Structure formats: structure tokens, C-alpha cells
């Protein structure tokens, strides 16, 4: 009995420690975003006189609202393209037996192992060939390199677990391939689609290297690049208050999305990992 109580107590303390360590950076960023001047260097966690000046300066002195819109459009387009292409690829790789299927899946997985800098020059030539340099459309294409391998693998694993009787009944009713995929399989794949879609959204939202390389003008930048280019009055001064305000604005929507869809994320990932 004592061992059981000790185990539960240790579990509770470790859980509290994990929560504190996980949430402290966000709490510190929120606290700093409401400070200015010498208050930034005070040890108090919450400012004595909170101010919204950092948030006002962030939107008045640079096109941060436009950068937020760019990030949202790029991330949303990346998710739609990734899920659309992955759904078709998952049906082919998960429901049709053909020679070389395992090799093709291995190639898709291997594509995700290359670092971004290794394919940067090739992506740059592709972007220039398509005439999309310094345009958010270049990011929609380049971010697929990051999101497609993951979404394909998760949806293939999930697709293999769907009963074959549904597909056979659809063929007997004379339904086409696209009808089977989007009218029969798609409703059953919602947990996996939500999980992979949200993770793809986060990956695209936070991507920095491609966004820095393929966009040049301020009105085409996404928020990671905009935050990196925030500077103070001199090259040796960093506006910590504005940086923290920008970090809070970028981070809080992702936390809200994860909290809202956490059950879908867990069920989608577990369904793709457990057979039966």
C-alpha cells in the first residue's frame, strides 16, 4: 500500500515538474511581451505595470499582419495540397498490390531524411523555372517536400486497416475510383486527416529556411522570417519586448488548435499505429 502511494506521489510530482518546465517558456514570453524599458531586466515574472506598446509597435512599424496572413495562406494551401495528394497516394499504395510498392514507400520515407539545405539549390532552380521567386506560391510548393512524406505514410497505414468489403461492395455497385476514395473512404479517415493535417500545418507555419530563401520583399515574407528580421535602434540592440510579443502571437494559435483537436490527433495517430 505504501509503495503504491509512493508511486502515485512520485508520478504526480514528476507530472507537475514536466508541466512547469513545458509551460515556463511560454509564460515567460507572455510576461516579457508586456514589459518595456528597464522592466525587461527585472526578475519578476509578471510586470508591475503591463503595457500593450510592444504589440502596437509590432503592427504599426512593419507589415506583421500581412506576414501573418501570408503564413496562414501558405500553411492552409500546404495542408490542402498535402492531404489531397496523400489521399490519392495512400489509396494506391495501401489498397493496390503491385511490384515495387515497398521500394516506393521506402523512397518516400527516405525523401524525408534529407536536410532542407541539401535540396535547397534544387528547389531554388525549380522555383525560378516556375517564375515563383519572391512569391508565397514558392513556399506552397517547397513545403510539400516537408509535409508529403509524413502525410503519405500515416494515411497509407490507416488506409490498409479499412475493411476490403467496403471497397468490393462499391465496385459491385459500379462506383468509380474517385467516388470510392472521396465518398466512402474519406469519412472514415477523418481522425487521420485531422492529425496529419494539423501536424503539416504546424510544420509549414514554423518553416524558416525556404521562406528566407525564396521570398525577398517584406509583403511576401512569412512570420518566422519577419520575426528573425526584427531589429532594434542599433545593430547591438534587440527589442526583446517586440520579439516576445511576436512569438506569443505566432505560438498561441497553434496551442489553441492542438487543444481543440487533441482527441482527434491522438485517435488518428493511434489508429494508424495499432492493427486489428
Question: What is the strand and helix layout of this fold?
Answer:
Blueprint: H1 2-33, H2 53-60, H3 64-95, H4 101-111, H5 116-129, H6 136-142, H7 144-159, H8 164-172, H9 177-188, H10 190-206, H11 209-214, H12 223-228, H13 240-260, H14 262-273
Helix pairs in contact: 1-13, 2-13, 3-6, 3-7, 3-10, 4-7, 7-10, 7-14, 10-14
Task: Please explain how this structure is put together.
- The chain has helices at residues 2-33, 53-60, 64-95, 101-111, 116-129, 136-142, 144-159, 164-172, 177-188, 190-206, 209-214, 223-228, 240-260, 262-273.
- The protein has 2 domains: 1-51, no CATH class; 61-273, MetI-like fold (Orthogonal Bundle).
- Mean pLDDT is 83; it is low at 233-237 and 272-276.
- 28% of the residues are buried.
- Helix 3 runs parallel beside helix 7 (144-159).
- The protein has 14 helices and no strands.
Amino acid at each position: 500500500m505504501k509503495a503504491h502511494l509512493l508511486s502515485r506521489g512520485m508520478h504526480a510530482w514528476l507530472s507537475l515538474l514536466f508541466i512547469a518546465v513545458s509551460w515556463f517558456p511560454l509564460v515567460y514570453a507572455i510576461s516579457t511581451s508586456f514589459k518595456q524599458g528597464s522592466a525587461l531586466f527585472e526578475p519578476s515574472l509578471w510586470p508591475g505595470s503591463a503595457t500593450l506598446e510592444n504589440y502596437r509597435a509590432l503592427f504599426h512599424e512593419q507589415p506583421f499582419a500581412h506576414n501573418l496572413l501570408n503564413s496562414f495562406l501558405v500553411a492552409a494551401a500546404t495542408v490542402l495540397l498535402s492531404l489531397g495528394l496523400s489521399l490519392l497516394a495512400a489509396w494506391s499504395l495501401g489498397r493496390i498490390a503491385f511490384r515495387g510498392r515497398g521500394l516506393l514507400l521506402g523512397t518516400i520515407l527516405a525523401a524525408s531524411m534529407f536536410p532542407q539545405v541539401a535540396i535547397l539549390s534544387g528547389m531554388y532552380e525549380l522555383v525560378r523555372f516556375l517564375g515563383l521567386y519572391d512569391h508565397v506560391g514558392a513556399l506552397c510548393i517547397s513545403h510539400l517536400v516537408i509535409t508529403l512524406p509524413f502525410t503519405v505514410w500515416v494515411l497509407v497505414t490507416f488506409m490498409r486497416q479499412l475493411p476490403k468489403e467496403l471497397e468490393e461492395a462499391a465496385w459491385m455497385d459500379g462506383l468509380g475510383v474517385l467516388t470510392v476514395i472521396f465518398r466512402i473512404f474519406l469519412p472514415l479517415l477523418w481522425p487521420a486527416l485531422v492529425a496529419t493535417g494539423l501536424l503539416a500545418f504546424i510544420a509549414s507555419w514554423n518553416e524558416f529556411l525556404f521562406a528566407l530563401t525564396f521570398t525577398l520583399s517584406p509583403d511576401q515574407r512569412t512570420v518566422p522570417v519577419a520575426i528573425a528580421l526584427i531589429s532594434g535602434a542599433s545593430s547591438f540592440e534587440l527589442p526583446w519586448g517586440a520579439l516576445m510579443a511576436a512569438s506569443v502571437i505566432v505560438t498561441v494559435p497553434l496551442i489553441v488548435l492542438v487543444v481543440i483537436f487533441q482527441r482527434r490527433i491522438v485517435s488518428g495517430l493511434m489508429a494508424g499505429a495499432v492493427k486489428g
